[in-house]
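Q: My labmate handed me this sequence with no annotations at all. I'd like to see what the chain might look like in three dimensions before we decide whether it's worth expressing. Could you predict it?
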Amino acid sequence: MAYPTKRTDAAVDEVLQRMAQGEPLAQIGRDEHLPHPSTWREWCRADEALDIAHARARDDGYDAIAAETLDIADGKIPDANGGHDSVRDKLRVDARIKLLAKWDPRRYGDGFQLRHADADGKKIDTAPLVQELLGLLKAG
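A: Here is what I predict for the chain of 140 residues:
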């Protein structure tokens, strides 16, 4: 396959538009009329404005995938055969959720917050425990 290496506005616009719609760069780069992903990354490294546009398009694409996930779960988007199979739809949703969590863990990952609280949810003062542990470490 021969991929173009000369940057054109049309190629840049198409890549950014398709990324913003949720299509991964690796998939976009399979089209012979568009740059290979490694060429695209070189263009982004060489041009700060393009790098920023790339990041924005990628974030928009993640949001598009998240919206698509809700549509699949709500039965609004049929599978490739035009039907709805609840098991297959669950797999489609789960795959997208897992990818989003890996690609953008800050926004789509499972987060947790650890709080020190008693059974009633009241904050536990850990300072005395920390002081006792420090004392034991010094003595040991």
